[in-house]
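During the first year of the project, the team set up a workflow for recording each protein of interest as an amino acid sequence followed immediately by a discrete structure-token representation. This format lets reviewers and collaborators read both layers of information side by side without switching files. As required by the reporting guidelines, we include two representative entries from the current panel. The first entry is reproduced here exactly as it appears in our internal archive.
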Amino acid sequence: MTTVKEAIDKMIQANVVDTGCVSNLSRQIINQMNTLQTSILVNFESLPGLNIVPAPYLNFYLQAGAKETLRAALRQGMTQQPNLRMTVNSAYRTVAQQHILYRVFQQAPKLIPLAAKPGNSNHENGLAIDVANYNAWKPYLLANGWKWLGGNDPVHFFEDNGRTDVDDLGVKAFQTLWNRFNPNDLMTVDGKFGTQTAAKMDRCLITGFAIVTLFRFGDNGAVVTRIQQSLTNNGFSTPVTGGFDQKTKDAVIKFQLKRGLSADGDVGPMTLKALGIRL
């Protein structure tokens, strides 16, 4: 099994950076963050006006306030230019992903000339997005509370009306997960990404701490059929097609809100249990 450090070493050798290699670990961290602070991050990929291009490194999460100002910008842009769609290249970045970028920056600055230390990027606060077609969307984002970083990083827009300690929460989430799965090698859960936390991140498997059972938008199969049937049985009527489509995700979110779960539209262990589904 590949550790984060081994993956970083391979990236430097290959001259290619891929934060998507820790996608499972990132999902665990996001889920743990939403456990530590209920729904601190919310999924925004269903907002009208987005051109969604799925990629392993992309986490379509923001703080709730940032999601709403993004919704307003998208609505304004489509009102004035009906065919305009926004392509987001980066949104929430987990501490694991930021660690990869920072390590590569430290060891191979020609590959990544600048990267913030984990716990210090506004992408880790759920208050930033990188927009591929930034020129088209800049006036609408600025008109709805977003700020533009400037010519040095023209794709980058950020909000500053949300909580600014979410990056610390991401570090705490990783520290909590590490302690849960490594009871004989504990560390202090303080939200600080120091040398001890960095060393344990290096030793962590890129696949995460355990196998994550997660069903989400785009998945297909028998379990999705069972999810749809259970949603319908619980009063959240959904076409039973075996394909996890937008109607299914919307129903999952309504079900999660009703049960007091993290309402991200993904069906993980807690939602499966609430639906009465055992795998």
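The second entry, processed by the same pipeline in the following quarter, appears below.
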Amino acid sequence: MLALYRALLRLYPAAYRCEYGDEMIDVLSEVQSENQKKGALALLFSGVRETGGLLYGAVGEHFMGITGSYDNGMFSLGRRFVMRSEFRFPKATVGLMIIILAAVMFTIEKARAISVSIPHANPPVGPIHPTQVMIVQALLATLIWALTAGAIGWGIIHLLHRSGVHQLSEMNPSAIPKHR
């Protein structure tokens, strides 16, 4: 089966094979060894599923190489199956954000024009008393608290990431005893 998997990996683009080929073969061999324990039928179903997945993935990678996007209609792989990182938002997002900003600005301008056209409908607002300025101090305190909490959270995540990467780089999978 592994010989078939290696042959199917040749269908992938060379750059993809160089980057992920060894890892894919390792995973496929683990899946095969797990399914050998379950029996011949599980091994057959697993082989068919993995063969189909390899063929589908090869076609998707070639479409990616041609179009530069994983969204190719019938062969759309979606983010769940993509091994490469890309920008998360579609290109149309910027245009839509500009349209929304223009609509908000247009609405504000219309509201300003309406308020100028009816000058005496609302009574004038008196001077702002010191007790009403407390909202600014509360918002500032909330902002400082949120920034501090975010910095602490980022620091914890950063430290955990570093220690996890270092632990994984020092790990030797062949030295781990297997439980039977």
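For the second entry, the following points were noted during internal review. Confidence is low (pLDDT under 50) at residues 77-83. The helical segments are 2-9, 14-38, 40-67, 92-117, 134-169. Both points are flagged for discussion at the upcoming steering committee meeting.
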